[in-house]
Write a structure and sequence with these properties.
By secondary structure, the chain is an alpha+beta fold. It is built from 2 helices and 8 strands. Helices cover 44% and strands 34% of the residues.
């Protein structure tokens, strides 16, 4: 018995130390778990909302850039061609019309390309085709471009559409006087 009782305080200390270590490493409470989950859900919600907004704004911004580019390019070509032309001859079918120089050596014909959905500019010299250029690529249908004249003023209305976005520009272009 002496051997057991002599070891007994040391064994008790070890048992007490193990007991304290076990009880000092307690698990998480239900409240702590709920708080952690709530914070995680809140952070996930904020991040997912930000990502969705990022992609929506990016898509909208890209559509706006496409439309603006189409309308600017078409405006520049039409303005240049109108300034060099003496008159406008209305076309038929997919051809909107032709801007003619006073001496008829140069012509700029504008038409609608159904396959590409584009406003097309064709440059002719002495009735020979010199170049073809798509000046607006996002024209949904032929009625989205309208040409009309009044004296030496050419009016053009162009609607460009990309995705859910659409914009119309109305141009008034002066032609060269005779």
């Amino acid at each position: 018995m002496n051997t057991i009782s002599a070891k007994s305080p040391r064994i008790r200390r070890q048992v007490k130390r193990v007991h304290n270590e076990v009880h000092s490493e307690r698990g998480t409470t239900m409240v702590e778990l709920l708080v952690a989950m709530s914070i995680s859900v809140l952070v996930f919600g904020i991040i997912s909302t930000a990502l969705v907004q990022f992609f929506l704004v990016t898509r909208w911004g890209n559509d706006q850039l496409i439309i603006t580019n189409d309308l600017q390019v078409a405006s520049l070509w039409l303005g240049r061609d109108a300034l060099e032309s003496a008159n406008f001859s209305p076309g038929a079918g997919a051809v909107y019309g032709t801007l003619n120089w006073a001496d008829s050596t140069h012509q700029y014909r504008y038409s609608y390309n159904i396959a590409d959905g584009a406003l097309v500019r064709e440059h002719f010299e002495n009735s020979i085709l010199q170049s073809t250029l798509q000046v607006a690529r996002h024209i949904t249908n032929q009625g989205d471009v309208v040409f009309s004249t009044s004296s030496q003023l050419l009016s053009v209305s162009i609607t460009s559409t990309s995705g859910d976005e659409s914009e119309t520009v109305d141009l008034s272009l002066a032609m060269r006087s005779h």
